[in-house]
Amino acid sequence: MSTVTYDEWRRRAADARRDWPAFIAGKTGPAASGATFAMVNPATGKEWAQVASGDAADIDRAVASGRAAFEDRRWAGQKPRERKAVLLRLAELMQKHKEELALLETLAVGKPIAQAVSIDIRAASEAIAYYAEACDKVYDALAPTGDNDIAMIVKEPLGVVGLVVPWNFPLMMACWKLGPALAAGNSVVLKPAEQSPLSALRLGELAVEAGLPEGVLNVVPGFGHTAGKALGLHPDVDCIGFTGSTEVGKLFLIYSGQSNLKKVWLECGGKTPNILMADCPDIDRAVAATAEGVFYNAGEMCTSASRLLVDRHIKDEVVEKLKAHTPAWAPGDPLDPASANGSLISHGHMETVLGFIDSARGEGANVAAGGNRALAATGGAFVEPTLLDGVTPTMRVANEEIFGPVLSIIEFDGEDEAIKIANSSIYGLGAAVWSSNISTAHRMARRVRAGIVYVNCFDADDITTPFGGYKQSGIGRDKSLHAIDKYTETKTIWIRI
Length: 497
Ligand code: NAD
Known about the structure:
By secondary structure, this protein is an alpha/beta fold.
């Protein structure tokens, strides 16, 4: 919790650092080209900072720095408990600077400051602490080969890992990957989203303060088609950990094929079906969770509960109750600790979201709440929390990821139809089932094709459980000890004795 007042946040925002160099080989510096790009606060529409615009030359330098650090084993060669101590110090420093880091997130992406402190930065530092603890607690294995042989199965770091992350939870998405990649002993080149690079740049500085050797973590801000592509194509990068859209995720598979067959792990889009069966155990609780699930973070969530599949026997009641919840998720100034919601990431994205709402109207859906831009006088990219009733499974809003505060309400009749609609998506990240019959709930949780299935809850979350998707939602899992596998090679050492 933070006790900082609205006035104080505004004062700190006015004083925030304006110039942001890249962070390569343990030092800050300009991009090789000298170019910079502007940060625009989406809640005001105004430019407020300049960031070094890294491109292929900067990626080259960052990869070379990571490779040098890996080859001389200044990090991988440390005792596991020493690596643990450094990462625990980093997690502590993130907590110590939580308000500073949270403000950078809010100014970049328009998310409410209270949530940035209590969710984003807390979860990011918890991820670093969790993987720090794993450093000296995960054991290698011995194969059952008999008395005359010792066959060891050991895990080794990959080398240089490139991380490319999105803007919706900037530091949290980065730390879900950084934690296991660093704990395993790799060097990292982190390319944050161009909309939200500042918290990652500050993290680079904090990592050196925590004792991470120079060159182990490099942060190159820049655009996707320049810096991101250069990292994906780089012949000396061993692995890419990517979170972002499915469209760009597919490009990284191509980059890998065109270069050195680097490993590629993808956390991509979603179109979560949230299924309310007629025997939903508690409609009030399900409706509250649905509203939070789709409107939290202005709907800019890969697991957003964007498709409500509701049994026709309870649909009218559910829609009426949802209407009563919607005002609580109206947007406000992200710097106001009382705001439950902030702006969308940009004016361009706001137009895209409003375009989705228009397309639903055009295809015959009914706008039961919201549907418009909000707080236009502020100059910010705000959209009202929106309920679209009467959506059918073939409409555009039922199939494409909107990434905004828009709920598509789809009626079904019985379990088979619910599962058929739920599974009709190209995505398979999250899903939820609400039923008071444990057999129904369990059967449906098994039948739905998704990496995370919530039963009688939504978006329950912990660093100990794997996170990732089926189908075009991705390849591999973030979080939990499983994530460490993505950043290690498995080696067999066979000794005849
Ligand atoms: P995006 O795909 O546009 O960008 C993600 C990253 O890829 C950014 O760093 C960007 O600079 C980079 N990039 C863009 N074009 C590139 C290119 N041509 N080559 C190389 N790199 C490139 O995604 P976004 O708009 O930042 O984020 C929203 C998307 O992220 C949504 O689809 C959302 O579902 C997804 N997401 C998924 C998860 C998950 O865990 N599955 C979590 C958060 C967000």
